[in-house]
Amino acid sequence: MNQTTEKLRLDKWLWAARFFKTRALAKAAIEGGKVHYNGNRTKPSKEPIVGDTLTIRQGWDDKTVVITDLSQQRRGASEAQQLYYETEESIKLREKRAFDRKANNASQIAPDSRPTKKQRRDIRKLKDHGA
To answer: SMART domains in the record, alphabetically (predicted)?
Structure first.
């Protein structure tokens, strides 16, 4: 996209690539250990280099992406997707984990209706005396 001579911070690149809604969220994720740069924890001020690998944890998913281009500007989603590509192993693993989560949720039986007032009292009594 846009090779610049200015220094580019990792948190700014993550924001421009639309992994996080704000730079503050990107910075917090990096500091919290949710983003690994070439397999190691990193700092928000790290300068990303084309060809390096990032592992990003978002919610339940881990994404492994390879940086293909650098940009300091946040643009449309289609342009942001050109800044990186996700590895095949990462895609397969995410799909498998999503399938496992859905299968696990399908096995749980939801109640037909909410508990009545009497049933809620009984549940509260059981919890209070059981603890």
So the answer is: S4 (SM00363)
